[in-house]
C-alpha cells in the first residue's frame, strides 16, 4: 500500500472535514428540493384538473 496517502497533512484534514460537513448538509437540501418539486407538480396537476377537465364535463 502507498504509505504517503495514509499520512494526511493538516490541509488535507481540513479539506476532509469540509467534505464530511458538506455531505451531511447536502442530502437534506436535496430532499427539500425534491419535496418542493413534487408538491408543485401535484398542485399544478390539480389546478389543470379543476379548471380544464372538470368544466368540460363528460365528453361523449
Structure description:
The chain is built from 2 helices and no strands. It is mainly alpha-helical and 60 residues long. The protein starts with a helix and ends with a helix. It is 85% helix and 0% strand. It has one domain (10-56).
Write the layout of secondary structure elements.
Layout: H1 3-6, H2 10-56
Helix percentage: over 70%
Number of strands: 0
Instruction: Count up the helices.
Output: 2
Judging from the principal axes of the Cα atoms, what is the shape?
rod-shaped
The run of helices and strands is HH
Question: What's this entry about, in short?
Answer:
This protein has 60 residues and is an all-alpha fold.
Features:
60 residues; 2 helices; 0% strand; rod-shaped
